[in-house]
Amino acid sequence: MAKKGNRVQVILECTEHKESGMPGMSRYITTKNKKNTTERLVLKKFNPVLRKVTEHKEIK
Fold first, then answer.
1. Quick check: 2 and 34 in contact, CB under 8 A?
2. Residue-by-residue pLDDT tens, the chain, 60 positions
3. Which GO terms describe its molecular function (predicted)?
4. Alpha carbon of residue 58 to chain centroid
5. CA 30, CA 19: separation in Å to the nearest integer?
6. Is residue 57 part of a domain?
7. What is the count of structural domains for the chain?
8. Can you give the residue range of the structural domain that contains 7?
9. Strand order in 7-14's β-sheet?
10. CA 41, 46, 52 angle in degrees (round to 5)?
């Protein structure tokens, strides 16, 4: 039987990179359970362009 579709793929984008004006962007793809986590996901991930750990927020 097929599984229920509670898990969805989301894209996380760096917030500091947008403000810095540097070319390129830092994005990560992950999954979340939309039933348990209804609000937008915010995680700290490494940004290779800025060379530091920054906040990445879910984009739609």
1. no
2. 667 788 999 999 999 987 888 888 899 999 999 999 999 999 999 999 999 999 999 998
3. structural constituent of ribosome
4. 4
5. 23
6. no
7. 1
8. 1-40
9. 27-33, 7-14, 52-59, 42-47
10. 125
